[in-house]
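Here is one such tokenized protein:
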Amino acid sequence: MLDGKKVLFSGMQATGNLTLGNYLGALKNWVSISDEYETFYSVVDMHSITVRQDPAELRRRARTLLTLYIAAGLDPEKNCIYYQSHVSGHAELSWILSCYTYMGELSRMTQFKDKSAKHADNINAGLFTYPVLMAADILLYQSDVVPVGIDQMQHLELTRDIAQRFNSIYGDVFTIPEAYIGKVGAKIMSLQDPAKKMSKSDENPNGSIYLMDDPDTIIRKFKRAVTDSEAHVHYCDEQPGIKNLIDIYCACTGKTPADAEAEFEGKGYGDFKLAVGESVVSVLRPLQERFADLSKNKDYLDSMIKANAEKAQYFSNKTLRKVQKKIGFPERVR
């Protein structure tokens, strides 16, 4: 804990364009809980290079993502918002933890299997040890809670296993993190395939709403959203397309699924889709306007990046020095 508050860590990769799913499932939740915790929100650009990146594009996307964190409502003076690559402790702790992680554990990671299948020509060691770096990200700040989706629970469980293994050898070194899972909009599905999560890497651009999509594009994508032949707005597993749209509508308006069902009783899917699209436009408009303003203020962004990197480095060093002493590394001469 820091200053009487529990510590929360989370981050996103600087690849692709953030989607509505990223916002409703993560960013929006981060903003709503940021006052309750001492927070560290990272642009995890080191994770991004397990897949080959264009250097200039990676730098641009990393800055865009950090700016979006702030535009979404995260105050960089209250939340530590920083680039992972600017804090050397992530890589240093990752190496140490890799010596306390078993090959069998890493080989069971479903994300490694999935990415190996997608990038068969580049199955590198970083892709295999990616979960250890993720564990280092979390443990470096003695995080109490980590907002995660269902698809990341396996990585958090491995983080807990590594921390407990290390603690059993060296004593009470790491805080054992718990999962924080948002209840509303935790998993937004593709508009074109409601069996799949809305994704930055979706090959079908109509499946995802991107945070920088203009209003006309947003409305058009919702009009094309997959539904069914029932012609009845009902929240149930048998109507996955409609259920997904109701989830989006409720996350944007604060209404419940029952409210949505009552509101659109007797109305067609066309009216419903338009209303969902308009609710998304209303939610994204202030974020887009704030992003545009921030992007013009280079000096402000640069000063926040520098200050937050220093803060993250300070807190990460406290954990790293403790770990280094425990395992027997020589003390540094000051």
Remarks:
- Strands lie at 7-12, 38-43, 80-83, 145-147, 178-180.
- The chain has a mean pLDDT of 92.
